[in-house]
Design a protein that fits this description.
There is one protein chain. With 324 residues, the chain is of the alpha/beta class. It has a single domain (5-321), classed as Rossmann fold. It has 11 helices and 8 strands. An 8-stranded mixed sheet has the order 1-2-4-3-5-6-7-8, with helices on both faces. α2 (109-123) crosses α3.
């Protein structure tokens, strides 16, 4: 019995919560973007939204959502930071409100990473900070490794830099699950009780990925889109994602790219992240200006589990990196 990446995404959507953000009001209504654009890229076009002033003295923060197949609502907890600097979010191709050609020829790390330059060029981002969450961190690291002019700092949050690192994190987390639940997930066997396996999987999700109920604004953002938007991309990338990737990311290794990154880089993780703090720490020697931070009582979606601490971590890091 295999636990697919599609099941992983479905469970995440069902269990995530986004606590009300101070700038959103008590009913957690997301502020309208100050600017929206459609940006052409190879394969289609992207939906891009900006909150805040792109011409502020403080450089914008460009943020990449996870997945693959997620959407930019995953980064809405950052919008209160738009009082200090512009927050730039976008949906990747075949995700969210961007074009959905559904062509596997587009589904490569290189093509997805190329979207970053397209968004920057369209918005005129000459100086910027970059944050990539999960799969978005893979793309952000690829962009940063080319040493693009104007990049000030980089945050990689819960980002697997190789299938090897993903496997290491999975092994670490499954080994400490109580009542043989980790064993049920890793090696359920042909005669395994499906309900017991599903219960173990649910416990894993609740602890390490989605730790609370789904937010109204996530559903509102996706209201007019197909329920399976992004599922095919996710399945193609991850395959049987737990405990091992079996899709086109099965043997990926972006770790050597970290050697080329020359800007201050923060490896950010939740205490219970699917990319464990230990996996992140192992990457630090590769980074010229690297540091790591663990957010207590948070999982992979730390921006939802501990939004205030997450915003402080992001705000403080990029403010420190910004030239005076």
């Amino acid at each position: 019995m295999a636990l697919s990446r599609r099941s992983l995404l479905s469970a995440a959507t069902a269990t995530l919560t986004l606590p009300a953000l101070p700038a959103f009001g008590a009913d957690a209504i997301v502020p309208r973007p100050d600017l929206e654009r459609r940006v052409p890229v190879e394969g289609g076009d992207l939906y891009v939204r900006v909150n805040g002033n792109l011409r502020s003295e403080n450089a914008p923060l460009l943020m990449l959502h996870g997945g693959p197949g997620g959407a930019c609502w995953q980064m809405f907890p950052a919008l209160p930071l738009a009082t200090d600097r512009a927050i730039v979010l976008y949906d990747q191709l075949d995700s969210g409100r961007s074009a959905y050609p559904g062509d596997p020829a587009n589904w490569t790390i290189e093509r997805y990473a190329s979207e970053i330059a397209a968004v920057r060029d369209t918005l005129g981002l000459e100086r910027f900070h970059l944050l990539g969450h999960s799969w978005g961190g893979i793309l952000a690291a690829r962009h940063a490794s080319a040493r693009p002019p104007g990049l000030i700092s980089l945050i990689l949050q819960g980002a697997p830099m190789s299938s090897r690192g993903w496997a290491s994190s999975m092994d670490e987390l499954l080994a400490v699950m109580p009542d043989s639940q980790g064993q049920r997930i890793a090696n359920p066997g042909a005669d395994a009780d499906p309900e017991a396996v599903q219960a173990a999987f649910g416990a894993f999700m609740q602890t390490h990925l989605g730790r609370s109920p789904s937010p109204p604004y996530a559903r509102a953002y996706m209201r007019d889109l197909a329920l399976d938007r992004g599922d095919a991309l996710a399945a193609a990338a991850m395959g049987e994602g737990i405990p091992r990737m079996t899709g086109f990311l099965a043997n990926f290794d972006e770790e050597p790219l970290l050697d080329r990154i020359d800007v201050p880089t923060l490896l950010l993780s939740g205490q219970h992240d699917v990319i464990t703090p230990a996996t992140n720490r192992a990457l630090l020697p590769r980074l010229e200006k690297g540091s790591a931070l663990v957010l207590a009582d948070a999982g992979h979606m730390a921006q939802f589990d501990q939004p205030d601490a997450w915003r402080r971590a992001v705000r403080d890091f990029i403010a420190t990196a910004e030239p005076e």
